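Example 3.
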Amino acid sequence: MNDENTSEKNDEPASDFIRAIIERDRAAGKHGGTVATRFPPEPNGYLHIGHAKSICLNFGLARQYGGRCHLRFDDTNPSKESVEYADAIIRDVQWLGWDWGEHLYYASDYFDRMYECATELIRRGKAYVCELNTEAFKEYRGVPTRPGRESPGRQRSEVDNLDLFQRMRAGEFEEGRYVLRARIDMASPNLHMRDPVIYRIKKAAHHRTGTRWTLYPMYDFAHCLSDSFEGITHSVCTLEFEVHRPLYDWILDALELHRPQQIEFARLNLTYTVMSKRKLLELVESGVADGWDDPRLPTLCGLRRRGYTPASIRDFCRRIGVTKFDGYTDVALLEHCVREELNRTAPRAMAVLDPLKVVIENWPEDRVEELEAVNNPEDAAAGTRTVPFARELYIERGDFMENPPKKFFRLAPGREVRLRYGYFIRCREAIKDPETGRIVELRCTYDPETRGGHAPDGRKVRGTIHWVSASHAHRARVRLYDRLFTAERPDDIAEGEDWKHSLNPDSRTETEVLMEPSLARALPGDRFQFERLGYFFADPVESKPGAPVFNRIVSLKGKAPS
RNA sequence: UGCCCGAUGGUGUAAUGGUAGCACAACAGACUCUGGAUCUGUUUGUCUUGGUUCGAAUCCAAGUCGGGCAACCA
C-alpha cells in the first residue's frame, strides 16, 4: 500500500448476510473451503463511491477469508467501452488500496472459449439462431402477464444452427439479421428465461480484440462463463441482477460447468447526490460538472481531487454494512469518516477566509514576535511551528459582532477574546465606512501579560479565534464545496420533473484566503486543518510548489465562525 | 396487473424463538487556547392484522408500502 493508506484501522467489517453464507459454505467444505470473488466493471464510465462499496466488499471478503479477488473487465460491448475507461478504473481501484495481484482479467480474453460454449449449447439443442427482427422479437416475447410465442428459428436443425452461427461469426450478415438465443421457456414468468439473446452481431472494433470479432456475447452469457472459467466461488452483484440468477444457473448447468453462487446486495445510494452512470455522464457533458474529477461528484476521482483519503472511504464502506434493503445512506456519515481520520492526521494552520482588519493600538509599530503554535493537538509527534504576530492582523469577519446575542463568545465592542497561540485582545472600537456603514477595521488593545494565550491572573475568556498577521499573510485561491443537490434524494422526483432542478447553485464558491506563512510551503496533495474552518487539500493539479490552490474537503462540525 | 426481492428510531445497521443494541444525525450538559476533538446524557424504532408458541423483530398467512424485471446494455 502507498502512503495514502497507512492510517487505516484494519478492522474487518461486522458480519453480514453474505459473510454468513460464506462462513456456512466454508464450514460445509464447499469449494474446498476457498473463497474467490471478483469486481467486474464494464469499462464504459468512471467508478464512483457506489462501486467502492462493491470493491471493498469483494476484495474485503477475499482478504478476510484468505482467498483471492479478481479485477475483471466485463468488456463485451465494444461500442461503449474504451481503454481510457479501463485505465481510469485500474487507477481508482489501486488508489482505494486494493491489490488483485496476478488476477487481472478481461472477458474479451475468453471470447474463443465462449464461442465454443455457444456452439456446444447448439449441439445440445439448447441454443438456436433466431431471425426475428427487434419488433418481432418483442412481439413474440409476450408480456409478464401473458406467455410468449416460439420463434420460427426454435425448430431449426442443429446442422442449420451451427452453419448459421458460423456464418454470423464470419461476418456474412448485417447487424440485427440474426441473434443466437438460449432455448429455455417462452412461457416463463421470468422474462429473462424466455429464450434470451446470448450473442448478437456487432460490427464494431473492440478496444482489445480489434476487428477479430463481428459478434459479441451478451452479459448474461459472458458473465457467468467468466466467473466459471476463473473458478469464482461467490459471485456478488447488485439487486437488479436477482432476476438474472436463474439464467446464470441455467447456462452453467446446461454446459455442466463449475457454478459459482450468485449473491445480490443493495447498491449504495447517498443523500444529496446522484449515482447513476447516465446522470453523472450528463452532468459532465453538459458542463454542470467540471469533468469526471469535479470535486463535487461522487466519483472516486472526484473524491480524490476533493481531498478525501482512501482510508476514509474504506472506513465508510465498512460502516454502511451490506444488506438487501435499498435505502439511502446519509452523506454525513462519509463526512464523519474523513473528519475522523483528518482530525488525527492533518496538521493545523491558520487562515482567514473573510478578513476583517484588526489594529492593536498598544502594539509597537514595527514589532514582530514569533509565537509558538502546536501543529496537531491530537498528535504530539507533529511538533510545533512559529507564527508571526504584529500590530496589524486579520481575523474572520464573522468573529466580530457589533451587537452580539447572549451566546456569542467572540469579539464585540468592549469584549475580550484570545487570539489562538497569541494574546488576549479587547475591542475598543469598530471603525465603519462612513458611506456604507460597513465595518472596515477594529481598534483593539492587547494584554502583554497574556503572551501565548495564558492570563497570569487566571482570568478566562470564552472565545478563542484564529488570525493572521497582515504583513506576513500569503494569499491563495480556495474553493469551497457544498452538496451538489439541495434535495436530499435527488432521484426521488415527481413525474415530469427534471432531476436537475434540485442542483445546488452554490455547490462551488471560489474565494481567496489569507494564510499564515507556513502554508505557503504547502505541496500539492497536502492536507491541513485550517483551524475552526475545516479540512483543506492542496489541489494536486492546480497547485504549484509555493503557490497552493486549496479545496475544502469538508467543514468542521458546528457553526462558527461563518 | 405477472414474477422476484425487501420493510427495525430522522438515516444506516445488529439481534437468527428468550432484556430491541450500535453508528451517524439531532438535542442537552461537562471539559477545552479550535463553538473542533473528547466525555456524559436525552429524544425517537420492530409496516398492519391475524396465527403458531410459555415466549415472536425473528416462524406461518393475508394485506399495505417500497424496489426490481418486458435493450440485440451491463
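The two ends of chain A are 38 Å apart (CA to CA). The longest strand of chain A covers residues 424-432.
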